[in-house]
Amino acid sequence: MPTPPRQQLYIDGQFTDGTSGSSVDVVSPVTGQVIGTLPVPSSADLDRAVSAARAAQATWRGVGVWQRAAICHRIGDELLKRADVLARLQTLEQGKPLAESLSDVKEAAQLFHLHAEDAVRLHGETMPSNDTHKRMFTFYRAVGTWAIITPWNFPLLMLAEFVAPGLATGNAHVVKPPTHTSLTVLAAMEAFDAAGLPKGLINILPGEGDFGTKLVTHDGIDAIGFIGSSATGAKINAVSGLKRSIMELSGNGPVIVLEDADLEAAARAAAEGAYFCAGQVCCATERVLVHANVHDAFIEQLLKTVPGVNLGDPFDPSVNLGPLNNEGVAQKMDRHLADARSRGFDILAGGGRRTGFPTDLYYEFTIVDGVSEDSLLSVEESFGPVVPVITGASDDDLLRIANADRLGLQAAVFTNNLTKAFRFMEEIEAGQVVVNDSNGFWDVNMPFGGAGGKNTGWGRIGGKHTLLDMSDLRTGIIHLNN
């Protein structure tokens, strides 16, 4: 097993034990063993990190965009050099299969290359004025110092989703990853140092609970980037006042199977969206809404995917389903399936935790049929390897069920009818709608975020849109004396 190389805070370009005198053990969901011990950051550590970030940003915002882009390119290169080591460390602390972790690291590196290129093409515009003596134009400036709070399901990738565009546009960052998935992020700071990133622009303070509140309410924080649950996002919004923010929150995305769909492809995609990262993804297969006319044939195809899901040691190349990351997620799965049993739903595969592994977090790939709209599997984000199947009587009924949910992040629809495809893309209340592929589809260059009117946040992660959200659009007006 890999040994975590860094088990300290990272402040102002230096690894440090901090000042609290307290620490917390990091336990692997794969082995059940303690794999590291991290300092608990104090208020003084936070003050120092914010001060370092603000001082660094005052200089960084004046660095030319081509120079910032060059450093971002070097960060991407340095991450790739360390990809194998970082991937193994991430699998140990997060639990996902090694192939998934390796893909995460490569995509994180790609984000730095992508945003380096985006930043040098971030153009303003000129516009005519009613006053012929005026010349008006727009340009972009960095917002300042960002508090970044990342989740535990994609430790390094979701750091890069904020930090890559943030650095490219001249911002600084104080990052709070969850304590139990911080080792990969801390190890990655060696790549940033090797790339020549000026100290202070990224500070890593793993923490929990009240520390996050202290971070987002700190007077030295100008803006907030958060990826996580809608409940936590609401708490951040309540205490942070008028600070600018990007919020990418919970999803409960449906996979909608119309009666003209390729059922084999739909079943395969629904299964993959449920077991990828053990279903611990905001755009996982949370509900499958199937037209009644093809329900039985779809279930037949879905059951054929079960033998292809191999639960086990995530370091084994044949395994594509590792353990859940933490006991809280496992208990939520327990609760949802207990509710399903109490309602008499049909559990066609899986249904619980698998024994005989080093931890109690290895959860079976599960298929549940006959799910009702008001059940926990339908109204809550399960965040585990489960495929709940709900039947709808018509296209209109499927659309109604999809839009009844309070969340609207990403959805998928399977159909071979172009008119129906466009209808569902336009009428499903979700930020992204994927046609004829997994609900879990994601690309580094696509704008990703929630739909308006839903509890799924605002702003976009991906491509030029994050650069725009992390920049101030300024307008210059010049009066000519002619």
Summed up:
38% of the residues lie in helices and 20% in strands. The chain is of the alpha/beta class. The strands form five sheets. It has a seven-stranded mixed beta sheet, with helices on both faces. Strands 9-8-7-10-11-19 form a six-stranded mixed beta sheet, with helices on both faces.
Fold blueprint:
Elements: E1 9-11, E2 14-16, E3 23-27, E4 34-39, H1 43-60, H2 65-81, H3 83-94, H4 98-119, E5 126-127, E6 134-142, E7 145-149, H5 155-168, E8 172-176, H6 183-194, E9 202-204, H7 210-217, E10 223-227, H8 230-240, E11 244-248, E12 254-257, H9 263-275, E13 287-291, H10 295-303, H11 327-342, E14 346-349, E15 366-369, H12 376-379, E16 386-392, H13 395-403, E17 410-414, H14 418-427, E18 432-435, E19 457-458, H15 463-469, E20 471-479
Parallel strand pairs: 7-8, 7-10, 8-9, 10-11, 12-13, 12-17, 13-16, 15-16, 17-18
Antiparallel strand pairs: 1-2, 3-4, 5-6, 6-20, 11-19, 14-15
- Average of per-residue pLDDT values: 97
State the secondary-structure class: alpha/beta
Q: Biggest β-sheet: count, sense, barrel?
A: 7 strands, mixed
User: How much is the radius of gyration in Å?
Assistant: 23 Å
Portion of residues within helices: 25-40%
Using DSSP, what is the number of strands?
Answer: 20
* Low-confidence blocks of residues: none
How would you write the strand order of the largest sheet?
A: 14-15-16-13-12-17-18
Strand content: 15-25%
Describe this structure as you would to a colleague:
With 482 residues, the chain is an alpha/beta fold. Helix content is 38%, strand content 20%. It contains 15 helices and 20 strands. It has a 7-stranded mixed beta sheet with strand order 14-15-16-13-12-17-18, with helices on both faces. A 6-stranded mixed beta sheet has the order 9-8-7-10-11-19, with helices on both faces. Strand 5 and strand 6 form a beta hairpin. Helix 2 packs across helix 6. The longest helix has 22 residues.
